[in-house]
Write the structure tokens for this entry.
Amino acid sequence: MGFETITLERKEKVALLTLNRPPMNPMNRRMYEEILEACRSLSGDSETKVLVITATGSKAFSAGLDVKEVEGMELGEIRDFLTLAREAYMSVERMKIPVIAAINGMALGGGLELALCCDLRFCSKEATLGQPEINLGIIPGGGGTQRLPRLIGPSRAKALLFSGEIIDAEKALELGIVDRVFEGPKLMDETLGFASKLAEKPRVALQMMKAAVDNGLRMDLPTALQYESECFVITFLSEDGREGLRSFVERRKPQFKDK
């Protein structure tokens, strides 16, 4: 399929989605539409087991909203735009497979909101992150006020949201916004290497692990524990679950078939 603002390629069992509006990779209507389209396509792909999201160039993962596109929009227009953006972000968040953001440069506003939808965030030492919307007289509209507090806690999130502060990679790591920091030239190799290791894991267990964590966090603890048990049973009865336990007893390496 052809895209205008992103590229989508597959490296064996790892898919690579690249934001492609350099140098700042601002997020406009077309980009949101194409992210949504790409995620729908990958959801029906039985071969892809991990998704990596990155961007063209080293200056910016995404500097955020394409302000020139939305400035001056009327009420109906901006509501439609926000609905599309929300659907695109949620399509990333709801992927059944692990999603890793490889942040190469600035991840600001909507760019950081996209990264927050991923399961893991790796970045270069040169990366900067923040939600500076307050400096434009607005607030985040793509999930920043919701996902950031859920990730690092409300007080720390409010400090960043209220101030609009842009932080460096080490501070982001300290706060728990990103999970790993690499030298810029090593970012993609390290990220794709990690993704490839995940892609070696049995599909059913990998997807059930993500479902148990993500869906369980939306439940009260007793309900979540019951849900975890149901996810466990699915993996236990899967072909790979049977093979994994059998191989342990037989003291050999398991031969998983992603079933």
